[in-house]
Amino acid sequence: MIDESVVAVSGQRExxxxxxxxRAVVTRTVESIARHCAAAGVGLRIIDHDLTADNPATQDDxxxxxxxxxxxHDDPANRDHGPTRPPSHPLDIDGLRELGADVxxxxxxxxxxxxxxxxxxxxxxxxxxxxxxxxxxxxxxxLGINLGHIGFLAEAEANRIDDVMAQLISRDYRxxxxxxxxxxxxxxxxxxxxxxxxxxxxxxxLNRTNNGVLELVTEVDxxxxxxxxxxxxLVSTPTGSTAYAFSAGGPVMWPDLEAILIVxxxxxxxxxxxxxxxxxxxxxxxxxxxGRSAIALCDGRRQIFVPAGGRVEVVRSDRSVLWVxxxxxxxxxxxxxxxxxxxxxxxxxxxxxx
Length: 354
Prior knowledge:
The chain is of the alpha/beta class and 354 residues long. It folds into two domains: 4-173 and 326-339, 3-Layer(aba) Sandwich (Rossmann fold), CATH 3.40.50; 180-318, Probable inorganic polyphosphate/atp-NAD kinase, domain 2 (Tumour Suppressor Smad4). 18% of the residues lie in helices and 32% in strands. The chain has helices at 25-40, 76-79, 93-98, 125-138, 161-169, 244-247, 331-339; strands spanning 14-19, 43-47, 103-106, 118-123, 142-146, 156-157, 174-186, 194-199, 202-207, 214-220, 223-230, 232-236, 260-265, 275-277, 283-287, 294-298, 302-306, 311-325. A six-stranded parallel β-sheet has the order 3-2-1-4-5-6, with helices on both faces. α1 (25-40) runs parallel beside α5 (161-169). The chain is globular, with a radius of gyration of 21 Å. The two termini are 34 Å apart. The model is unreliable at 1-10 and 58-81 (pLDDT under 50). It catalyses: NAD(+) + ATP = ADP + NADP(+) + H(+).
């Protein structure tokens, strides 16, 4: 069930939709949402740039790490020319209103989700992280509907949208907190100049160029742990352990676990293994003052320059991203489904008392 305090102060319930308009299925999915909202007298709030063909949402799957997860990116015709923008399917506000929905439009600023009961995300993990940027400052829970490929952050698939909306409207869902990280970056010669950000998945401290390695030192709770050269190092939450940290060789952590994960990326060292630390730990990464500069990339979206000699500190945030749970499938089942893991031969517990 939900906390009634998240209902809009006006007394009318309102759902926000953040959509990946680069996929055709978004049109019929948002129309279904509009019909359910109209029938229940629930307002619908959408973001202004989801109404235009030139929508940054179509770039959500090409993040600042340069990874391309969009449909058609494996086409040989695209390989020599870089990723191409997929066709856009902007939301039709007039069509949604013709369906009876009470639709308002918000700009994509930190106040956009204030007063909404839920932020519904239509897309993949990139779209979810974009929506989290709106929901996090407003303290509004987020529900992911997967229109993408893996969609590990999503709670349901698009073909279940009618069932999901019925549960949302009847308030038949739970809200769980997901741990986030606070990140601060200090300048070696300007101690008063501190840049700050946050992350739901991870902060990646990366070499700014493709040349050479980034020389760095990791620190836990004020003590040095290891110095090495690498492409970078990731500091991740349990939620982010199935994202970039997983690709870098980190372990999968159950999302209700409270811990901070440190994962070197392509380290040139005999000992540079992933480490799981206490959620109360203060993690620091220092960049060699005689070496290359770096960037701190938060959730693949927010980039901060880290000069040579700079220091990145990461701690658990006092604030969480609120997560809408609908069916609460076991996390192990999600792993098997999303990664298509083989489980042939599994028998489970046999008999009573085992």
